[in-house]
């Protein structure tokens, strides 16, 4: 299945590698490589009920309700003020990750979230939250998009904003919630963690460059229409790898014939570029690149590593690394200075492989399911 802009990273099969400033958060630094050291151990929540600031998951925070500001339903009149909050958030984010694009029109970015069908949220002078129902395949989430939340000052207030917004979502039957959070903002990540959200996936990026070829005894070439049936089987293999533990994906898988039909339908689209790796005359794996529309993560001159898969028997033999170094070099030579990708955190292969290939996490996708 090719990745369409409308998919917007809701439970699409995660990329499968080879089958696809302080020390207070060394564990996060290992999980989420970034442009700076992470902070905050997640252990040792205080049992204090005092309204004085206490250490919660290693972060000083006040447990009292943030009752000193008014929270109201989000409305058109709040767009300009919310856009200013978003612009300030993104400026801080770009200080941590300079490869992120400039935010030329924060109002337009905010409007993209607010004008989505079914969107609702809340606003205060300190922050806002907007979410909209997003369905891909057989799963519908109430999703706070990349531009769907921002806050100034005490990040604890984000918990009050979510509390004010989420009741309506649940009342409307939306019990699966997701939010994209800038990975550099440790206190904001912790605020969402303390709302029972957990890490689900990441959005990452890196510079391209003249990578040295990796010798895995494979021949790498551009894909052709004759490769579609094999590409479809590799795609199904990738999806099947997400079904068992620890991912337990409940996405309805395509059949090879269904996947092949999509490959044939989309092949003429110039936004896609397929590369295949052959070993002993047989395809062992592939990578699909995609010209994703720009947003707060995707620079206009970037290209997305949208799909990567190898057959299980080729796993660990260097096929994935050879393909990756090849496409990074190809992207650099063809005028794409930045490459983006994403992966599910429960995909053990991908979550270890892509950081080793130089990808840095820019956004976390956090998730909770309400019984």
Q: How far is the first residue's CA from the last residue's CA?
A: 31 Å
The tally of beta strands, per DSSP, is 15
Principal-axes geometry comes out as globular
Q: Could you name the CATH class of the largest domain?
A: Alpha Beta
- Can you count the helices? 9
Question: How many structural domains are formed by the residues?
Answer: 2
CATH domain topology of the largest domain: Aminopeptidase
Low-confidence spans: 1-64
Can you describe this structure?
The protein folds into 2 domains: 5-17 and 208-361, Aminopeptidase, CATH 3.40.630.30; 26-203, Gcn5-related N-acetyltransferase (GNAT) (Aminopeptidase). The chain is of the alpha+beta class and 371 residues long. Strands 3, 4, 5, 6, 7, 8, 9, 10, 11, 12, 13, 14 and 15 form a 13-stranded mixed sheet that branches. α2 packs across α3 and α6 packs across α7 (256-266). The chain has 9 helices and 15 strands. A hairpin with a 3-residue loop joins β4 and β5. Mean pLDDT is 83; it is low at 1-64.
